[in-house]
Specification:
Elements (H helix, E strand, L loop, with lengths): L6 E5 L4 H12 L3 E6 L2 H11 L5 E5 L5 H15 L4 E4 L14 H29 L2 E6 L14 H21 L4 E8 L12 H5 L10 H13 L7 E4 L8
Parallel strand pairs: 1-2, 1-4, 2-3, 4-5, 5-6, 6-7
Helix pairs in contact: 1-7, 3-4, 4-5
Length: about 240
């Protein structure tokens, strides 16, 4: 653990993009605070990362305001500050909108919307007081360019809303020296997309493949270092959002 190092809070850090982000930030020398709902999965992640005191597990439901506060309180207690928040935790379900149950709709709103708002609120308070910090939201390329072959209205509605919230919060926090941006991935090689789907999914993007998690992490790391970029939605999608 290095208290002089930068510290990042990553929500949903136990798999997929979140796990890739944790690896990337640790490699860059950051202290990493990873959040998740399962203590068992977080511990397994800590073991896999083998980062010792540089990785802190915080168990909680990102959709609850007390979980966001706990992540920042524990991060500050251990590392002294938080420099970057990555709002990564999310649920993506591709199916016709009429097939969503009320419980599924509420779950998507809780995780994909409330989770970003509460964590960003905690970050804005902490970073605003310090006059320094970066908030990075993981949204979705699909929210910028819906596709008839990928029915996902909930993702379009909620991630699209977060894209606009990113711009609004960037304006609000600019006087405090805090930047707010978003990375909008397209289809990515994560457990959410089994290998047998990769060939078909790749054809949806002009570059004719899906992304590697490391390519999403590279974009996030860029925004974590960029001091004169704010209010930007950066698509990392092989050209998917450019149109067809």
């Amino acid at each position: 653990m290095n208290k002089s190092a930068n510290t990042v809070v990553i929500t949903g850090a136990t798999s997929g993009i979140g796990l890739g982000l944790a690896k990337a930030f640790l490699k860059e020398g950051y202290n990493v605070v990873g959040t998740g709902r399962s203590a068992e999965r977080l511990q397994a992640t800590a073991t896999q990362l083998n980062a010792g005191e540089s990785f802190l597990c915080v168990v909680g439901d990102v959709a609850k305001p007390e979980s966001a506060r706990a992540a920042f309180d524990q991060a500050v207690a251990k590392f002294g500050k938080v420099d970057v928040l990555v709002n990564n935790a999310g649920i993506f379900t591709a199916k016709p909108f009429v097939d969503f149950t009320p419980d599924e709709i509420e779950e998507q709103i809780a995780t994909n919307l409330k989770g970003v708002l509460y964590s960003s609120q905690a970050a804005a308070r902490h970073m605003g007081e310090r006059k320094h910090g970066k908030i990075i939201n993981i949204t979705a390329s699909l929210a910028m360019q819906p596709h008839s072959n990928v029915p996902a209205l909930m993702a379009v509605a909620l991630k699209g809303g977060i894209n606009n919230a990113t711009r609004a919060l960037a304006l609000e926090l600019a006087p405090y020296g805090v930047t707010v941006n978003a990375v909008a991935p397209g289809l990515v090689d994560t457990p959410m997309n089994p290998p047998n789907t990769h060939e078909y999914l790749g054809k949806l993007a002009p570059l004719n493949r899906i992304a590697d998690v490391s390519e999403i992490a590279d974009a996030v790391l860029y925004l974590a270092k960029a001091d004169f970029v704010t209010g930007t939605i950066l698509p990392v999608d092989g050209g998917f959002s450019a149109g067809k």
